[in-house]
Specification:
Layout: H1 8-11, H2 13-24, H3 28-33, E1 50-51, H4 53-68, E2 71-83, E3 89-101, E4 105-112, E5 117-121, E6 125-130, E7 135-140, H5 145-156, H6 163-166, H7 170-174, E8 180-187, E9 195-201, E10 205-212, E11 218-225, E12 233-243, H8 255-258, E13 261-262
Parallel strand pairs: 1-8, 7-13
Antiparallel strand pairs: 2-3, 2-12, 3-4, 4-5, 5-6, 6-7, 8-9, 9-10, 10-11, 11-12
């Protein structure tokens, strides 16, 4: 499951409004407004959602293509920023090799950078394996993929930045709470194919997304999370797409993992990137109250 470049001002507009107002209070106009009897400046109108039909159609086409696949595999390379000691961010990168066979088989292999790991779900249990340390954690799991991924995130901070793309209805997962969707234009650079660039946002995350113009598959997603006060950027490149290809049974085998030394299925030392949370696992926005 993201503009020429992502606009931090758009994403964090409310957060930035406070500092801006504080700076403005020193201007002559602000001082005049503070005098008794001065007229108050009119309140800024509330932002109204802008959902361009063509952008919505593109996202729905992507969702339909992924949802129709009985099996899929791809490689995801995620890059995210983290503050350095001097302030400017450093970029960390992780690769994920993903295999999914509906309705109840998922395998995510993380070869590096950082600690290698494997995550497997079979509709009954989840297995998290650290091959270098030969440690394994096993937990009972919900029968649905969405439920399993939510439990893995909530109990062990197992985070996959592509969670929304795996669900049975990716568009249905991200569409609640949408406040912005529009098409930027075409690109011939990303993923080695022609893509269409679009923006999508809700009150939690601002995304720039590159979708294959012909195959409708996501090729790149850039994100900024509102919960991150620094507005650090997350970049996800998706490649090696294979839909409805044969996945051998050994793809999802956990025999080697289960032979490892047991450990608790709990939050690891490695933290989730600042502000990050899969879109589909966030609570849906509450509908606005109707005027009385």
């Amino acid at each position: 499951m993201r503009r020429a470049l992502i606009s931090g001002a758009l994403l964090l507009g409310v957060a930035l409004a406070g500092p801006a107002a504080a700076q403005g209070s020193t201007t002559p106009a602000a001082k005049a407004a503070a005098q008794p009897g001065a007229k108050k400046a009119p309140a800024k109108p509330a932002f109204k959602p802008v959902l361009e039909p063509r952008a919505v159609e593109m996202l729905q086409a992507m969702s339909a293509r992924l949802a129709a696949a009985r099996s899929l595999s791809f490689t995801a390379v995620a890059s995210y920023e983290y503050p350095s000691r001097l302030g400017p961010p450093i970029v960390y990168t992780m690769r994920y090799d993903v295999s999914l066979q509906r309705p109840n088989l998922l395998k995510v292999v993380v070869p590096g950078d950082g600690p290698a790991s494997e995550f497997t779900w079979d509709g009954k249990e989840m297995v998290a394996f650290a091959p270098a340390e030969n440690l394994v954690a096993v937990s009972a799991a919900p029968p649905t993929l969405e439920g399993a991924l939510k439990q893995a995130f909530d109990t062990a901070a197992i985070y996959f930045p592509f969670t929304d793309l795996l669900l049975n209805d990716p568009y249905g997962a991200i569409s609640p709470g949408a406040i912005l969707a529009y098409v930027i234009g075409p690109s011939g650079i990303v993923g080695g194919v022609k893509t269409d660039m679009l923006v999508w946002a809700n009150n939690e995350v601002f995304l720039q997304i590159w979708l294959g113009a012909e195959d409708k598959l996501p090729r790149r997603i850039r994100a900024q999370f509102r919960a991150d006060p620094k507005g650090l950027r997350h970049d996800l490149e998706l490649s090696n797409w294979k839909l409805d290809g044969a996945l051998p049974p050994e793809t999802f085998s956990t025999a080697k993992a289960k032979a490892g030394l047991p450990m608790a299925f709990a939050t690891p030392g490695r933290k989730v990137p600042i502000g990050a949370k899969p879109v589909a696992l966030q609570p849906a926005a509450k509908p606005a109250a109707k005027p009385q």
